[in-house]
Amino acid sequence: MAKISSFLILSCGLLFMSCHPEIKETRDKLYSRHLQKHITLTIVSTPVPKDKNDFDLLLFNDGEAMNQLGVKDIIDSLNKNKLIRPLIVVGIDAFEPTQEYGVSGIPELLSQSTLAEKYSNFVVNELLPFVKKKSGVRKFNSVSIAGPGLAGISALDIAWDNWQKFDKVGYLSDPSIRKTSIDFSLLVKKISLSRKRPRLQFWFPEIHDVKDSQRSDSTGMDKLFDVLEKKGLRQSISQETGADKKSFKSFKNEFSHFLLWLNEIH
User: Fold this and answer.
1) Which residue of 58, 89, 187, 253 has the fewest CB atoms within a 10 Å radius of its CB?
2) Strands, DSSP E only, in 111-207?
3) Cα(245)–Cα(254) distance, rounded to whole angstroms?
4) R_g of the chain, CA atoms, integer Å
């Protein structure tokens, strides 16, 4: 896959200026019978195209961080420079992140990710139909799901189990300043035991300083690459130059590259 040059990113004006009025951001709530609570949604959309089916859809785990991460500004800048197709991003606010995000169906999980399966059912069986009805789109041009850190593990897990519903899935660096590491081992185990070979495109950041104890997530990511390669899916993986440190500024640059990748045709 052709690399997006740094010059292109800079030239498209990603200085996060005030948003163009045509980019809309709204808040909504959806009651989930699976989770038995109302889930808050942050929805960012580009102007409506002549054919609504031209919209791409991105479900973004960890919607609470969307304002802080400048997602609306990034979309606005790329849209004004005509670098992305019509896009709707739906940010999902997790009520209990440590319980809802994670890997479903693994017996080892005792105190964490207890709601992962219910959260997955919410996303696939409740949220997707809700977004289609709300937007008036019968069939999106493409449907993707992504998230940072543990929310990204959740996105990979949901896409793997429901690959017929998704075209692309992305794992993004955790922009939190907290020194946390992401454990990919349970996801690796689940995929290695699975007989599936889904038609999915995967996106990962290229993480540097793999020997740094703070970046132990990259070592686990290598294990995930290995198991995907054994499944014959290595050609479905795209790895872009990502953040060399955890910061919201570096995440914004990484997320810009990710959106440009979503816009590519595979």
Assistant:
1) 253
2) 142-148, 168-172, 201-206
3) 11
4) 17
Positive or negative torsion for Cα 143, 206, 113, 230: positive
Give the model confidence (pLDDT) of 208-253 as tens digits: 544 444 444 445 788 899 999 999 998 889 987 545 555 667 788 8
**255 membership: H or E segment, kind and range:** helix 248-262
Amino acid identity, position 91: G
Give the position of tokens 């793997």.
160
Looking up tokens 């889904």 gives: 198
Contact 139, 53 (CB under 8 A): yes
Residues 242, 173 contacting (CB under 8 angstroms): yes
Mean pLDDT of 87-116: 81
Tokens at 192, concatenated: 């290695």
| pTM for the model | 0.85
Axis-axis angle for helices 248-262, 71-80 (nearest 10): 50
Question: Greater confidence, 94 or 8?
Answer: 94
Which of 65, 45, 12 has its CA nearest to residue 248? 65
Sheet order of strands, 237-241 included: 24-32, 37-45, 87-92, 56-61, 142-148, 168-172, 201-206, 237-241
Tokens of residue 65, six digits:
């961080």
> What tokens does 22 get?
């045509």
| Cβ partners under 8 Å of residue 35, min gap 6 | 95, 100, 115, 118, 119, 122
Alpha-carbon distance of 60 to 65, in angstroms, equals 10
Distances (CA, A) of 60 to 131, 152, 171, 234, 252: 13, 9, 10, 24, 14
Q: H-helix or E-strand containing 52?
A: none
